[in-house]
Structures are given as structure tokens and as C-alpha cells.
Amino acid sequence: MKNIFLAFLAMSQFVVAQNKNKIDTTKIQKLDDVFVTANRTATKRAATPVAISKLTAKTINETKAVAAYEIINKTPGALMVNLGNEQNMMAIRQPMTTNAYYLYLEDGLPIRPLGIFNHNALLEINQFNLESIEVIKGPVSSLYGPEAVGGTINLISQKPSFYPQFKFGIQADQWGYKRIQASGAATIGKIGFHISGISSLQQNSWMTYSDYNKDNLNIRVDYTINNKTRLISNTMIGKYYSDMSGGVNETDFNNRSYKSTSDFTYRKSDALRTRLTLEHDWNTNANSYLTIYHRDNKLGQNPSYGIRWSATKNPTTATGEVNSNNFKSYGLIGQHTQKLDFWNTTIVGGALYDYSPVTYWAYLINLKASLNPGNPGTQTVNKYEIVAEHPEIKLANYTADIYNTAVFKQISFSPVDQLTFNVGARYDAMKINYENALDNSAGNKNYNKFTFKAGVNFNPIKNVGFYGNYSQGFSPPGITSIFRAKTGTGGTTGIAAEFYYNLKPATFENYEFGGWINLLNNKLVLDYAIYYMDGKNELLNVRLEDSSTDYRSAGETNHKGIELGLNYKPGTQWNIRLGGTIAKHRYIDFQLSDNSADALQNLAGYEMPQAPRWSGNSEVSYYPNWLPNFRTSIEWQSVGSYYQNQINSVKYDGYNIFNARVGYKYHNIEVYGNVMNLTDKLYAYNLTRGNAANSQTSYVAAAPRTFLLGIQYNLCLKK
């Protein structure tokens, strides 16, 4: 990274000489009320019939986030759950889950191909490269395809600047975390560039065996061919390695004994994403683009969640696994936007083709479990140790070629000024050609789906708007679920491996009403959304007694809630933001067991686990007139109670925590400090528990009070 930073300095000096006689002809416009994600083209909020929030550059810059969850949780209705070292799970119109019901975009392009969802995809993101983040709540499969169900998050990267800019900063906390970051941007003639890099390191933290390191580099180059045509190149290179400390038991959690039970589990990732986009403005009413892209990802793990142990069956032994999931993607997407004078109509249409070959294998490892003192059947593990690795005993071993072809179209029109209609549809054809070495089978699977949406905006007066929509969502089962041997088969069991070949795609129907109100000359802004979403064949993980996972498709689920956001700015010195969601997620039909001897067979009417009825994030910010360039804020993060398991036998009370942030700019120097978990509260980011009577809770412990300090140098060279 040192060489990169030196290169930034050299380029900045060179660009000053090239630009010193130029005049900036660009105009600064306020774009807070304009979104690009919801309609695949720049659209004002008043013509966007979905629940969408925008996290601006100002919000991102003032948050000074270590991980993306610190920013995204400021969105009403979004709860991004920290799993440590930038790993996460999500809860947007869904319980906290790692399932494939969220779509993560980078400048409008999915970070992962269809069928290879990873809940940790955002750990590859360079936080120092973000210009803004747009969060859509609810299904947008009609525009972006499968997995765009609970929510879609579009991370929008910074663009080249006209004037030469250079930024360099460092930040660190008392728990061994440190990060160095730098960026440089400028325009030289017809070529503009923006380069951004970060290097993060965690050592000897509050949780044992939780080190990690991450390096990311983003490069964007824009070439203006003429005043109507542009060529844009984007490349991301990322490397990540993290220990996986896993959860702790209840006793250790309550005693604040943050001790990992394993010192061998890990997650590592090597990622490359590159794209080349040709944009052309045919006239003021017509625009097209064509993007070719490539992804190359290698993900290896010895996961803590892969450890299988039972308190009642051979408690001094356990098993684990090592796995590797590697894929490449070659794709093409084209889109045309056409505006018509008739009824102020906008038509957006396009097509996508993606080819992604993937290889995956997992093998068994035998572990020794050293136990803590206690009564037999209720003991907990003090430490796991590897006894033997068995690369010859495969838990999964397949190759697959994934083909995804899609066409989409959306039309919006306004027959009268106060009314805008929006209709969209998409057809996805997904084909998987596979070879499964565990059962020596080969074949193909097809998941084809037409998805539709329709919405309307009604803006009776300038400062009041309403919207309603009906939208469909769709998500095929991930291929890591399909080709994984069922629990109790394969490996050393002596039973032929069986697989989840019959898992069905999940489908969703969403009904929604919402709106916004601007009062007191835009000093007070209120937005809200009310939704009701039915899911069919939703893929669920059933946690068994030994912590292994069985996959089931629920017959029907229901998700409903209210999302509220309020922003009040009484003057230049204060800003008050309130946001949260009240929600209920439950099973309508979920056949948990087919054994007539089991007391619970169908969980119809039960609440889904890890589904708090309430979650919210609010903040008060102060910018004193008597001390320009100074800021301070207090943030409140609240998560209500929720059931730990599917049979609703044990609840977690939830938590309320406070974070504080302060910063000051003096000329080109900015100093800042964040205090996370201000009151040093004992709480857990997430809890899970099996359904068996003797199951024990696993706590993902949250960090104690953390002090983050940083300094940043910001240089913008103007004439």
C-alpha cells in the first residue's frame, strides 16, 4: 500500500501542472432527492413508488465507519447485523438471515452472480471509495432479478473530480484495530481518474482469536470520447483474511469472558471485479449504455459455524470442515432509456447475459472437544482442537456452469402532473449444468421466472406525496444448498449421500403503501411505508442438536411492518434524525417434522426466529456556529426482543446502545473520534439456538466500549 500512496502524491503534483490554466465548467447541484437504483435511471423521489433511502456523501464522511453496518443501519427499516471483522447478516423486511434474499450492487451491477449469494459480500467493499448508498426496501426483482427480495443495496462509487484531489488518513482503536487509507482524483484533458485504497489490520482484540487484515484498491478511469460518448473503466482488487472466533456460550457471555473455542477457524477471500462501460447520449431524451464485466472470486474457509458437536452424544468429540468456493463470471448488460413528451413518459429496457463457472468442495475434519465443568448433557466446550483432517472424506464436491439470461423493461408516465404510474417486468432464465462427484451424477437444473411490478405516485401538493405498489420477488436456492450432502448421509455415516435436489425457488408478493411530508420549509421531513409480503417456498435453515443445518422450504411465510423516518433541522446548528421499523415475521405453513411422535410438527402461526418486533436508529447532530467546521453527534441503536429458535421457547431481550462521534476540520486537516457502545453495555449482535430441549444458546458477543481516533488530510487544488 505504501507504493500506492506515493503514486497518489506524484500524480497529484503532475495534474496540478496540467490543470492550472483550466476553468471549471461543472455545476454543483443538490441531488439528495434524486435516485438511480429504483428505476435504473435518475428519478426524483416524487416519481419513485418504492421505499428507498439515500445515505449521502456527508453521512458517510461523518460516520467514519470501520464497517459498512455503521452506515447502512442509519436507514429506517434496515438492520445490518455485525458478525465481526466486517462480516454480517441482514434484516430488511426479513428476520436476521444469511439467506439469499438481498441483492448487493456496486454501481448498479450485482457483486455476486445469480445462485452464488454470499451474505458477506459487503466485506469486499472499500468504504473510502463510497460516494453514496441507496437502499431499496422490498422486492425489485422486476428490475434487478432474483435475490432482490427483502432489500437491494446499491453502493455508488466516487467519480473523477475536475480539480486534483488527494486524501490520506489513518484511524485506530484501543483493541488493536488500525487502518490506513488514501485516494486521488483529477481530470487531465479527456481523461478523468479516481483511485482509492485502504489497508485494515486487527490484532490482539477484546475477543481472542479474532485478527483480520484487508486490502482493497479501486481504480476508475473515464475517457470522454466526445460530448455525447464516454468510456468508463472500473476495477476492484481485494484481499481479505480473518480468524473466525465464532459464538460464546451463555456463561462466558455473562462473565464477559470473550474467549474463542477454536484457534484454527478462518475465512479468506481474493476478489477481482472489472468492468468497461460505453455510454452514449443520442439526444437530450435518449441514452444507452453497454457494459462488459468480469468477476474472479476465491473464497476459502474453515468455518466456526461448520463445527458439529452434541452435549449428549460423544461430547468429547466433534467434527468440522474445510471448504473452498471459487467462481468466475463473464457478462454483458445493455440498457436504453427513452423519454417521450407524451404524458412525460420514460421507457427503460435492457438485457443481461452472465456465464459463471463455479467449483466447490468441502471435506471433513475430526476435532477433540475439551469441556467446561458441569453436569453431563448440559456441559459446554472450552476448546476445540484438530485431531485429523480428511481431504478424502468429502462433504461436498461439485462443479457447475451457471447461465443467466434476462430481459427487463419499465415504463413510467404521468397523464396529469400530480400522478405518475410505473410498470415494470423482467424475465430470468437460469440454467445450471452440474457434475456432482459425491453421487457421480451430472445434469442440469432450470429456474425460469417472470416477475412484475406496478406502482403509482400521487403528489397532490408540492410538499406531500403518496405512493402504492405491488411487486413480486423471486430467489432460486443457492447451489451450495442444492449440492450439499444431507445431514446423516455421506461422509463416514455409511449411508449413501443424499442431496437437496428438490428445493424449490422462493417467491414473494409484496403490497405496499407509503409517502412523505415536508413541513416548515423542508426543515421537517417525514417518510413512511406500510408493507405486507407473503412468501412461498422460503428456504429456511433448521439448526439441529449438533449445530448442523438441515434445509427446508417453508410452505408459506408472512412479513408485515411499518417503516418510519423523520428528519428535523430547526436551524444550521442542529439536525435530529429518527428512524425505525415495527415488524412481524411468522410462519403460515412450515412442516418442521414428519415424525408423528414429535409434539411440534407444523409451526403455523409461530414467529420466525431472529425477528425483532422493533429495530431503529436515531441521531442528534450539533454543528455550532461559534466553532465552524466542528461537529458532534449522539446515535441511538435499538433492537427489540426476539425468539432465539423456531419453536419460540426462548427469547432474547434485545438491546439499546449509544454511539458518539466528534470531528473538527482545520484547513486541510481533519481530526475525529468515535466512541462505540458509549455506556459499555453487555449485549450480543445475534443469538441462535436449536429446537431440541437440551440445545444451548450461542452468543455473537458485541464489542465493549470502543474508542476510535483518526486524522485525515484533504487536499483540493484549485486555481
Automatic annotation (TrEMBL):
Domain TonB-dependent receptor plug residue range list: 46-152
GO CC, alphabetical: cell outer membrane
Subcellular location as annotated: Cell outer membrane
SUPFAM superfamilies listed in its UniProt record: Porins
Annotated signal peptide: 1-17
GO biological process: iron ion transport
Main location: membrane
Sorted UniProt keywords: Cell outer membrane, Ion transport, Iron, Iron transport, Membrane, Receptor, Signal, TonB box, Transmembrane, Transmembrane beta strand, Transport
Record's bilayer topology term: Multi-pass membrane protein
The TonB-dependent receptor-like beta-barrel domain, residue ranges: 213-678
Entry-linked Gene3D superfamilies: TonB-dependent receptor, beta-barrel domain (2.40.170.20), TonB-dependent receptor, plug domain (2.170.130.10)
Family of the protein in this entry: Belongs to the TonB-dependent receptor family.
Protein name, per record: Outer membrane receptor proteins, mostly Fe transport
Source organism of this protein record: Flavobacterium glycines
